[in-house]
Design brief:
Blueprint: H1 3-12, H2 29-39, H3 41-60, E1 66-73, E2 88-97, H4 102-168, H5 174-207, H6 232-237, H7 243-264, E3 270-279, E4 284-292, H8 297-367, H9 373-407
Antiparallel strand pairs: 1-2, 2-3, 3-4
Helix pairs in contact: 1-4, 2-4, 3-4, 4-5, 4-7, 4-9, 7-8, 8-9
């Protein structure tokens, strides 16, 4: 289970729908992530929003339109202006002449907004890949817990039969049989709990691709295989290229582009109009032209520039705060990860094998009459408790690894 590989797929957008070949085939992690990405409403929403931003950018990049208009004056009046003999008809075409590079500034702003939205699409993909991986790990862990619970029931049933035989032979007191019955009932309750926990985990995983019921029986993976992680220095170096940092940079670029739009607005536009006027009373026509320039552009632009400068300062401070917080969170996660790995490896490589030997030796002694039922029950309880702890430690390691990989995922600049 290599999350970094899955995040690369998510960022590249190469995870398409991967149907299961057979319902009985185990589900693998890449298949689960691919199906979740293909069916994610969040990814679809951000992708649709990207199309909207692209359309808005294309619209805003268009030059100012031509405007055609006309006037009909001095008609239907009184005296010499009665009727239409003295009417004056004007047909004109006008257009705003943009100065100061306004169109180029709008194009740059549109490009920045497209890059920002494209990054949100990437962010949604990473979130889906991380969530699906975490749920896949939970299913894998619950499968292991159910296997252990079923073995526990099998061992309890076997022990109960042996104790009953010894009680009937008057070798053991009847209280041992009562204790064996209680141990069996408890084991069956644990199995029932493990079954519905697995059902819930499978349902949660299937929900990531919109399925109302799980369309898989089991998942394929090795919970006890603990992937190596980079050292803290290498992980910390990746914090500069995370999706959050990229989002901050793209937002700063968008604000800077808005500032350029505000700066360009200091130059007033010229509204130029050219037309033809027809004077009915003289039976003549002539050209008419008008020019208008708005006043007060610089004071208005100054407010836009001040707003953009304040936003850029806020973004710089926020980016530094996020960097410091991410560094601290990463350090804590790495420490927890190391502890979880140490615990999982110690349980897997040392403590479990010792407990299994203890159960085997205690069982032989019990069958030979040297050990009591309570000694066997205690050895079995210790073994199953250590197995549960091993599952918990391995699960915690994998889930922490998901968080670390999510925290240090390398984002791709969508504008490059």
């Amino acid at each position: 289970m290599k999350l970094r590989y899955l995040l690369v797929l998510a960022l590249a957008g190469t995870c398409g729908l991967v149907p299961l070949g057979q319902a009985a085939e185990p589900l693998r992690l890449p298949e689960a992530v691919a199906r979740a990405l293909a069916a994610s409403p969040a990814v679809a929403a951000e992708s649709a929003q990207l199309q909207a931003v692209q359309a808005r950018s294309a619209r805003d990049s268009l030059p100012a339109p031509y405007v055609v208009g006309g006037e009909f004056e001095n008609f239907a009046g009184s005296g010499s202006l009665r009727g239409a003999d003295a009417a004056e008809t004007t047909l004109r075409i006008s257009r705003v002449i943009e100065l100061g590079g306004k169109r180029a500034a709008r194009e740059a702003l549109g490009d920045a907004q497209i890059g920002q939205q494209a990054q949100r699409v990437q962010q949604a993909r990473i979130d889906i890949a991380s969530r699906t991986t975490a749920r896949f790990i939970e299913v894998l862990a619950d499968q292991q817990r159910l296997d252990y619970a079923r073995e526990h029931v099998s061992q309890a049933e076997r022990t109960r039969r042996e104790v009953a035989a010894w009680v009937n032979a008057a070798r053991n007191p009847e209280t041992d049989l009562h204790a064996a019955d209680l141990a069996l009932a408890e084991a069956r309750l644990e199995r029932e709990h493990a079954e519905h926990e697995l059902d819930s985990a499978r349902m949660a995983l299937a929900a990531t691709w919109g399925a109302s019921t799980p369309d898989f029986e089991t998942v394929d993976g090795d919970l006890q295989a603990l992937p190596d992680m980079d050292d803290f220095a290498a992980l910390a170096a990746r914090l500069a290229e995370t999706p959050e940092q990229l989002a901050n940079r793209l937002e700063a670029e968008t604000v800077a582009a808005r500032r350029r739009v505000g700066e360009a607005s200091r130059s007033p536009d010229v509204n130029l109009s050219l037309g033809v006027r027809r004077i009915e009373g003289l039976d003549d026509q002539g050209l008419v032209m008008s020019v208008s320039v708005p006043l007060g552009s610089r004071p208005r632009a100054a407010y836009s520039l001040a707003e953009a400068d304040a936003e850029l300062a806020a973004l710089a401070a926020r980016r530094e705060a996020d960097r410091l917080e991410s560094h601290q969170v990463l350090f804590e996660k790495v420490q927890e990860l190391r502890h979880a790995r140490t615990e999982a490896e110690t349980l897997r490589d040392s403590m479990l094998s010792t407990a299994e030997k203890a159960v085997a030796q205690t069982r032989r002694g019990f069958e030979a009459g040297r050990f009591s039922f309570y000694s066997l029950a205690q050895a079995q309880a210790t073994l199953f408790r250590l197995r549960e702890r091993a599952v918990e430690a391995a699960t915690r390691y994998h889930l922490l690894l998901v968080e670390v990989e999510r925290l240090t995922a390398n984002a791709q600049d969508p504008t490059s």
